[in-house]
User: What shape does this take?
Amino acid sequence: MEILELFGVDWRLMIAQLVNFVIVLLVLWKFAIKPLMKTMESRNAEISKGLDDAKAAADKIEEVEHDVKIKLQETKAEAIEILEQAKKQSESNHQDSLEQTKNEVAEVVKKAKEQIAAEKKDLVNGAKTEIAGLLTKALQQILSEGLSKDIDQKYIEKTLKELK
Amino acid sequence: MSTDNHNSEPTHSEPEVLHDVEIGENQHASEEHAEEGHELTLYAEPIVHIGNFPVTNSLLTSWVAVFLIILLSLAIRKKTKRIPSIFQSIIELVVEGALNMMDLVTNDRSRSKKLFPIIFAVFIFILVNNWLGLIPGIGSISFNGHHIFRGGTADLNTTLALSLFAVIAANIFGVMVVGGWNYFNKFINIKAILAIPKKIKKEPTIVLINPISFFVGLIEVISEVAKIASLSFRLFGNVFAGEVLLASISAILAFGLPLPFMFLEVIVGLIQALIFAILTLVYFTIAATAHDH
Assistant: This one.
């Protein structure tokens, strides 16, 4: 071990240096490396979380946009359908009311015609009887003065028959 | 070689055989010249004795290094915020780079993170010690005929203590990861011996192979000792050689000429700290791999 003596090796000095190193190790570990590592790790975690969140948000936005698009399309289609239905409805309503009116008008016309016809008949009947009466009277007057009773009677009856 | 005045101190317990490395002008010129930084001893010189304990100049420098590192740690703790300042960003850059470099060795982020404090402390401690020894003039402050400061790692005590710590800690880590019995069998391979009667019918070559594995295990024991020696002497040699180089260059011409060598030594200080730290990590990683065949 002469070589160790040559280099001045002394176990007390070695222990002193070892103590120095251990102090350095502990101080560096506790005061510097640990908090630094902790900070770095938490920051890394935060950054990766932030990136994830941003991605999630972007995905969400896309999804929502997609949803909105679909909803909009649906709404459009619905609106068109409703409009068409309304058109149809209004058309059919129109047709109905038109028909009804027509019918009503037709009925009114028919009634009016019937009335007119009835009145006409009455009028004609009335006129006939009146004319017949007048004729009988006139003929009686005429015939009572000139012609024989037989001929008269015959003639009157004949005329009346014809009239009828 | 001549024994100089340092060794003649009464309380100094270093044996007489200690040789000094003399650089620059010849020693006989005058005793005063020797104290002006042209001369370096292979060992760290004691400045004062506290009781029986010799406080060497290297130990003193190491204390300064510890103090500086504590200041740095406190600064980091104080400045660490969620949103980093420039200071914190730089520190984080260093930490991130160190972790990436460690991943190259461990291939495992979680293990890198687990070992990071130890490896980083080794690196910082050695780096600060290396660089403190380089500060111009630090070797020229004398007291009682001794240089007060000397690079902490320019003393074998420091590097030996660090490499002992590294190798022992690596072994403890190995035991923790692979388990005591498995780890023991890396060195004294009883498993290989026990496996012979079981498998001898299937593969007769095992009679030859497993005794070899057993002896390989014994060699591993020696390699652990070699690790301590190689770690400590590499660092000590590089740093001490750097100081000798700077001293001798300064002796030739103290103005301007040492500058490129100074840069060189700054880089060497960094690289040696890096090498020590990475080798420590390698030893940890090797210790943590199960060696079953």
In short: The radius of gyration of chain A is 64 Å. Chain A has one domain: 2-163.
